[in-house]
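subagent[fold] <- orchestrator: predict structure for attached chain, return tokens only, no commentary.
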Amino acid sequence: DFEVLNPYINKNKPEDFPRGWSKSLLTLQRFGWEVVGLPFHDGPECFIYRKDLFESELEQERFLAKYGKTLEVPKNWEDFHQIAQYFNRPEDNLYGSIFACYPDGHNTVFDFCLQLWTRGGSLTDKNGFIQLNTEESISGLDFYRKIVNDKTAVHPKSAEFESVAAGIAFSQGEAAMMINWFGFAAMCEVDANSKVKGKVDVGLLPAIEGKNSASLNVYWLYTIAKGSKNKDLAYDFLRFALAQEQDKQLTMEGGIGCRISTWNDPEINATIPYYHKLEMLHEVANMLPQKQNWAAIAAIIDQMVLQAVNTETPSEALVLDAQGQINKIDK
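subagent[fold] -> orchestrator:
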């Protein structure tokens, strides 16, 4: 169990709390009025791309000649797919896109949620129960299974990649586009082994026409164990670690700081030029539902997505089956 931090916060707030953080980083750790943790390492999911390829005059000329339209950062999923096919060049060890499809109960679940949300769908109904059997779910699953299985658009090792391996492959120049955690974009600028330093940018995820973009926000917390014998000392450390100076230092060493001041820091943006975009990403960030049995629910969604990718079973049937399984445990 976690120690409730409200008495400590009320007595001695962390520097600039709560205004120093985006609201989307102060929600998951709250249960009613009780706060059980404070954020220290950030997500969120974003669209990561090779700006040097998109800005290349030669690529723009070739794309225009081939498709009759301008090469631009994709705003919708159909354009994303088309651009992925355009940049897919196995002979150059360059692929249009990378997905992290390793079956670990995380990556495919997150990808499904992003497809759902960027179609205007919701993972829960108005009563807070998981709601998979919707048009948006089926449409998102249809698109995901189509693109992930398109060998003319996606890195051939996507099925083996979890998010870290996908991020490393991107940093080695193996893909033009990727949907992944912001930290893997930052890694391209600070990792000594990166082959794409200065060639990367981030933006909002594509969405279907008329719907807003979305992101997934998952983040790490500092907490204090309920059974700790040194709770006051532990809270003092939390306050120290959360201060502006330490949040910036965490970022300079390769973590993703959580403070708005860190995101907008000139020194950090000189190294990682898109760091300030974290604020924009958090404005459209959604969170996974607070459910004690979320791991079991996620496992069902994971299986649904993997079956979509690996079988011919219609998406409607897969969604219906998953919904039936979830209904038995989501009460």
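orchestrator: received. Logging for downstream: Strands lie at 30-31, 34-35, 38-41, 45-50, 95-98, 175-181, 200-203, 215-216, 220-222, 285-286. The chain has 15 helices and ten strands.
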